[in-house]
Structures are given as C-alpha cells and as structure tokens.
## 1
Amino acid sequence: MGQTETARVAVLWRGDHEVRKSATPANNRFYRIFEELTAIGIEAQPAVYSDEMVDEVREQLLNVDGVLVWVDPIHDGQTRVVLDAMLREVASRGPWVSAHPDVILKMGVKEVLHRTRHLGWGADTHLYRSRSAFQSEFPSRLESAGPRVLKQNRGNGGQGVWRVEQISPTGSDTVLVRVLHARRGSVPEETTLHDFMARCEAYITPDGCIVDQPFQSRLPDGMIRCYMGADKVVGFGHQLIKALIPPPPEGPDSDAAQPGPRIMHPASAEPFRALRAKMQLE
C-alpha cells in the first residue's frame, strides 16, 4: 500500500446471502466500529460470511489490507472449521487477519486454563485429550473432590460448559449425578454418570479436549473480567452472572434468573488492586 492510498479493512460476521447483499456500514450491530475506522481514515467494508459463500468472501478479503473477524466458535450448530481454513489462507497471502485462527487456538480456548493453572488465578485444573483418560480419571476425581465444572475447549454462550455433582452414595453400583448446563434457560437434571460422560465425549476431537476444574462456590458473587493492553491492566468489568447457578423458583426465564449488567471500572479501582498486581507482575 502506497503512502497516499487509503487502507481498506473488511469487518466479517456471519449471515446469509440476503444479509450480505443488503449490508452497509450503517445497518448492522458493528456500525460503531465502521464509524471509528472511518474517522481515522480507513475504508471499512462489510464482509458477511457463511460457509456457502466462502469462495466469494475469500475473493473479497484478498483485496483488502486487513480483516476484523466477529464469528463465534459455535452458532446454531455451525463451527468455524471452513472459515478458519479460509482465514489462514488469506493471511498467508498478505492481508492482516485479527484474530488469526492460530492465535485463537493459543489464547482464546479453554485449554489456556490448564496451561496457566500454576499462576495466581489457577485452580485444580485437569485436561482430558482422550476418551480413555476421561473415563479413567474423571469419575474418581468427581467422587473425591466434590462438584466439578467441565468445559469443552472451544465454545461460547455457555455451550459445552457443565456443573457436575455426584448425588449417589459412595460405592453405589450406579453413580448418579446432577448436572447443569451453562446455557441460558438451563435447569438441573439428574442422570447417570455413564450417560453424562457419553454425552461429553463428543467434545474430545482431534482439535478438542475437555477442561476439568472445581466448581467455585463464590460464583454468585459475580465474575470479574480483566482487560489488558499488552502487559498493563486497562480496566475491569464486574458482572453478576447466573450460569451454573440453579434458577430461582420463578423459573429459568424469569427476570430473577437473568444475568446482571456488566459494570465497568478503571484500572485504578481499589477493590481490584490485588488482581491488578497479579496480572501485571506474574
């Protein structure tokens, strides 16, 4: 790109043919991103994607300087397998892709909880890469360590995240468990450990695994997100979440069962001083 040329960036999200045909910088939920890019002199263009349009979108991306990608790992049963292969190809031919699929596999998956378990935020975290390891290790760990949380490696919106607790006495011929999916609207269910584990084995794929952590009883206190700029904390977000917490008597769709707003705090917020130090020094 020459010094006088305008940089071109495609903003990519999932949609169908009609959405792609009608998309403009102003008629979608990313309109503020388009506005900010335009304000600094970047030509931003919509790049609505579906697997059926992969060739058309590839051609578009090869004619821009960069790509900003907003596509969940799982959406209505669709994965990013086809998309990620195309993005790798595009990146190898010049355009800058954010986030690159290989970066996501290092930083944006649940496996990072296992790789960083030795740090200050770590816990009793285990990883199952094979069905045999899952079958041989998880039952005894659940029995001895108490309620656990299982997480598939890639997911969003609570998909593939389960709270599991054993409810049958130790030594029972059939082990019964109570499980709760993290997806909004879920309710606890009781099943056998065998049947539940069979359900979870679908998460163990050549590129997938299951992360196993203890259930945190302080979960009702909320979740804290720590936002980083390189190696510095730039802010915090505190939200009272309801995932993995049994719904109130009013039901899973009631107002009382919905998560609270995310309250943002500056990096200097005193309640998070210890967390800030851990994030910046460890």
## 2
Amino acid sequence: MTMSNQVEEAARQVVEDLHSFIERTIALNGGKTTAVKPNHRIKFHWPPHPISYEYHVLASDWTGAASFEAHGEKFEVVVAQTPYGTFGRCEAIWHEDRGDNLELMLKNLQRSAEPLFQRQIKINQTLGQEGRFVGHIRDLSPSELITLLYCEDRDVANEARTEIETHASQRVFTPALIAILQDRKHPYRRSAQWCVLDLFEDLPSICRDEKEQELAVQAMRDLIWDAEDDYARTIYKAGVVLGGHLPHKHGGPVLLECLAAPSKVGRRSAIHGLFHVVEWQPELRTGIVLALREAAQDDPEPQLREFARLMARDIEAGEFDHIPEPVFPEEL
C-alpha cells in the first residue's frame, strides 16, 4: 500500500469512528438531535501557582502525610505544618492548598482541585471511557482528537483543535472535519463546528487538493443554508471564513447564493460576510451592493431587510466598519 493510500485509509477510518461516536451519543441522548447551546469557553490553567511559595515553606517542612478521596480515588498528600497554617501538596495532580488545620487544608485541597477533576472526567466521558483522563491530549489518536472537538468543555475542544492544527500536514483529519460541518445530529455540534471553521480559515494548509477544498466550501455553504440557530456564533463564523478568508474564488459566489437561504441566521451571516468579500475584492462592490439592495426589498425578515439596506450603504461608501448585525427576538 502506497503512502497516499495509507493516508486515505486512515482518513476514512477517522470518519467512520466519528459517525459511530455521533450515533452512540444520540442513543445515550434518547434519540434527541436538537442542538444544545454551549457555554462560553473558559480557559483552563494548570497547575495553579504553588501557594507554599508565597509563604516561603521550606523543603524540610514537608514532613507529614495525609490523603483525601474524590471521585472514587484516593490521593496522597504531603503535609507541612507552619506558623502560617497547614499546607498540603498532592504531587499526583501537581497541586497545593492550605488551611488553618489539617482537616481544613484537605477540604480546601479537594475543593480547589475539582476543576481539574471535572475537566478530566469530561474528557473521558466524551471519549466513552470511565473515570478521569490522566494522559496528555497531544498523545491521543486522530479519531480521539476529532471526538474531543465535541467535548462539553469548550477549552478541551480548543486544545484538541490546536493539536489537529499542529498535525494538519498528516492530511488524515480533513474528511472528518468536513463531516463535522455536515453533522445535524450531535447535541454539541455547534462548538465542534466552530472549531472546524477556525481551522478552515487556512483551508489550503488543511486540504490535500482543490477537490477537498471544494468539499469543505460546500459543507460551509450547507451549514449556512439550513442553520436552525447560531449557537456559539458558528453560522456567523462560517460567513466570516468564506468572506474574510476565502473571498477570491469561493466566498463571493457562495455568500451571494446564501442571500436566498431558507435560514434567517444563514442569510444574516451571508449579508455580513459579503462586507469582507468586498474588503478583499473591491471590484465586486457594485454587484454585491445590487444584491444586498435586492435583499433589502425581498427578504421576508424585516430586521434582515434593514440590515441588508444598511450594509449596502456601508459597502458602497467604502466604510472600514459596518452596521452591527441584528439580534433576533428569540436570541435575546
């Protein structure tokens, strides 16, 4: 088998694993396929700054031992008794805390370690495994990295996205990334799709050839076309990627087509994205202004008619900024 065939086979396997993961999730979700509005990403930093450094606890002070239990596991703790209180260090999780006595220190240590535990548990839940994830995301397989784009913890998804970007030259991820944009079933698809769109800002570095780029563009077009919501600002981002990052060949024609999309959030994304097309291709200004003025007459949504009218005005005037996009009542 040639190297090219090996890559294609590996890419097919990642897509198959993705589809299996989605179907398992739907089954666990009672067959529901409605998208869930994800929380905002909260950046995770670990380990925290060691509190013992602030009190100049010496290496010779760590003479005691204790433990605490969390999530069915026992964690060993080394203890330092000082005039400033009792300090505990759990080397297994690279973490310290303090308290006025041993009991309070252990309670504080367990409480302040909970964000780490929850992150590790959510990683394993997404991967279909029990307990805490205690490895490194960078060591996961391509299929596992793709799966983690769906993690409820959006910072975990972002870390997986970073790893995929780092290894994009392997060319095994792109068919699965396109499949994520085509996903209409997984409850956390919007945050996963946002990650994919972020990767597609540099589409040539992700895709093997022009054909694969066209498949990716078609998936973005379809995402805009039938979008039921704009959770995580995913549909908005699709318009930005097409208009601001792929304007020369794909962005203009696709976004002009999407002015007629049945989805109102899709049409909103297209109106906004066309502003960025003109930034990169000013020779398209006249045609885009005419199309927006037509939308300002024909769009069934009053808010979008006004948005299209004002966007046409801003583009025609050569403004460096544009009118803010409208927010629909159900989004408030």
## 3
Amino acid sequence: MNLRAFTAERLNFHSWIKGSVNDVLVPIEAYHLYDPFGRRIKHETRFQYDRIPAVVELCIQAGVEIPEYPSRRRTKPIRMIGRKVIDRGGLIEEPQPGISANPSSLIDLDTHGACGRFPPPPPSDIPKIAQETMDAYETVKLGVTKLMDRYTVKACGYCSEVHVGPWGHNAKLCGEFKHQWRDGKHGWQDATVDEVFPPNYVWHVEDPKGPPLKGGALKKFYGKAPAVVEVCLQAGAQIPEKYKPMMRLDIVVPESEEAQLVA
C-alpha cells in the first residue's frame, strides 16, 4: 500500500495502539560522565560513554552510588575565572565500571517491557497504587527541581538532547529540521525541569468509558494534564490542586451545535 495514500485517507486521525510506560513518562537520556569537569565528549568518542536516564545521571552526580556508573567525588572546590576552569584537581584515569551485587538494579532503570515484568494488581489495590504513583511523581519532580538548583544541566535549544554537566558535549547529534546548517551541533542553554523530567500532556477525559472526545470547535473546551496525572486520576487518586485548573474540571463541555454560539 502506498504510505502517502494511506496517510491521506486517515484525514489527520491518529492510529492508536496500546501505550507503554515510555508514553506516560517520556524517557530523556544523557551521557554518563565519570568527571563532569573532565574531558569533554567529542563526536568521535561518543560511543565510549553510556547513555542513561538524565534524572539518574543527575542523582549520580549529586551523590548516589551505582557501581556500574562510578563518579568522581571531589573534596576540594574547582577554581574558575568566569567560565574558564583554572584548577580542576587534575585529570585522572576513569576506573572500570563495577559489578553490582544486585544485577537487577540496572533492569529497574529500563522501562522497556516493564508492564510485562510485573503481574497486574488486584482491583482493590489500584486506588492505593495510583495515589502512591501520584505522590512519587510529585516527589521526583520536586527533587529534580532542587538538584537542578545545585547542579548544572544543559539542554539543546533546537532538539530534546540534555546533558548533565557544566557545559554541553560536542557530539553532533542535533537533527532538528531547518537547522542542518549547524552540522549537527547542539545549541546549549540552561535546562528547565520540564526538559529533564518532561510531562507528556494529554486531553482530560471526564468519563473514560464514555464516547471519544470530539474535535473541531469542542477542542478548546477540553482540559489537559500530564499523562501520569490523568492515569492516576482515572485510577482513583487524589490529584494536587495545581492540576485542576489545567484540566478544566469546572467547565461544562457543550454540544457541537451549542459550541457555535459561544463567543
């Protein structure tokens, strides 16, 4: 079948499939560095560095010990004049990654096929799990915000690449459309929390078992929320007040004919 003809027949309608954890929590990866102030990653050496979740890399640099991903711990401050490093304590050889006593620790970081690794919970436990998930989501977001106040994180202004460190890497991986003249170089700037721990916004559905949402003129009446919040709300969790205005819980969605009469 001609793919272009098939796309035209869909008339911009989505082709829905079963979602995964990565559709709810968007995975943002970054290079792991033994020494963030050490040698800068070059395009030719990019395969010598592991890619791990950016939140995990941020936690490692903040003090979390994972044997597979060692990190240099400094006892003396780095001396800088402006943006130039005067004394970084010397360059040392990176140690070989260790072997964890619990091999499953790295598997827990992998979200691929996560739903298949755990049996479905009984229906009576779903509201409790939803509330724990909602609380954990807020805890992680608050923790990332606090860590980013202390540790520098850079984000590309053209694509979704994130780098945890005082300056970005030199790997030419930016393929943003209409910016090919940059030869793949990233445009680094200070990252925001939503770039490191991005919320995937979805339409709020008042009745999950009801009819599908209608597009057109009614679209402006529907609220949105991060996918995690929407899933937890539908599962029976109490959501924070800050999300309720975004979800427009106090707005009555009119019928299609009534929407044309709304100013």
## 4
Amino acid sequence: MPPPSLQAPAAVAMVRPHHFHPNPETAADNAFQRPATAASVATQAHAEVTEAAATLEAAGVRVHLFDSHDPVTPDAVFPNNWFSTHAGGHVALYPMYAANRRRERRGDIVEMLKARYRVQDVIDYSGLEHDGMALEGTGAMVLDHIGRIAYTAQSHRADPVALERFCTHFNFEPMAFATADAQGRPCYHTNVMLCVGTDFALGGFHLIADPLRREAVRARRRESGRDVIELDAH
C-alpha cells in the first residue's frame, strides 16, 4: 500500500459505467461534451475505467469497483461529484445540479464505506437541491486537504451558500473565482482546470477571469511548497 497521505488516499471507490454517453441534462453548461454514438462511447468508457482500476491496483491502491447499469445516469462514472470522504471518518453527500445526476447517489457505496472503514458521520447536503442549490463535490471544489483550501470555480454547480456550509463543517477556506475560456464560457467544474496533488499542482490559471484573482490563486499554490505546473489552452 502507498504511504498514507491527506492529499493522496490509499484507497478509492470507482463506478464503471455500462451506459456512458453525453448527458442532455448537463450539456448546456459543459463545453467538453460532444455528440457521439452512444454504444461506441459506452464501450470505450467501460474499458477505460476497467483499465484505470487495474492500473491503480497495480500501483498498490485499493480499488472498490462498482458497476452502474442504469441507462438514465450516464455520468455515474463520476461518483466524486456526489460524495467525498475526509480524515476522521467523515463522509459528505452533495446536492447535484441536474435531476438525472441525483439518481447517481447509491446507498450501497455508503454502506461499503461504513463496513470497511471507520465512518463517524455522514453529512448530507443533498436536501439543498430543494432550494435550488448544487455543490457537486470534488468536481465543483478542488480541495487542498493539507492547506485546508477549497478552490472553487463559480458556476451553477457550486452554489456559494452550499460552499460556505461545507467549508464551515469541514474547516476549509473557500477560494472562489470566476472563469472563462476563449469563447467566454465558464468552467462547469473546477477539477477540469485545477488539480492539487501531494507534491505538485496543475493549473489552467489562464482560465481565471480576473487577473488579480488569478495571481492570488497562483500565490496560494506556490505558498504550499508544491511544484506548480501551468496548463495552457493547447
């Protein structure tokens, strides 16, 4: 097993999709989605997740692999959007923006966590959906577990009230910022432009719209002592 790390866990939960395809309920604000043949994309996604799980296991990471057979949850492969785990045995469940993504939450995954690990509590924010709020887990937030910072690109999927509640409960400092690509479209999730590892951080900092905020995020990354790798538009 890899050595314990607050930032890089020794075990992961993965969901292998059987019906992965572009999601019409999320296409409006996800510029990465493209029209595709459902069958071919589903086959490729299934194979890629299978390979990723095997690669992680070969590297010594414990993998809890679940399968998703529900045809109306094409994004089930991204379970980090609806739950996260935290040191001390805490689990968070998140409110989702699209109605069909709310069906991705699975009791069997939560029960597995309780059976295999010392889960002290489950903090469920999903009720915020009734108030029109979303906070899609570690897609909406990129968490620096060591520096206790929640980097968050502002979007429909990262409600500021929900973000404040999470940060208060889990002792993170929220660091939110507006983003825009070359066409002026915001990033729908923070983790498509920022990654924080144990010893390094990747960032598409050019996507942060405000220059002062961009430099502030860069500075926080440098202060962490990690190697900062800048990603460009190409």
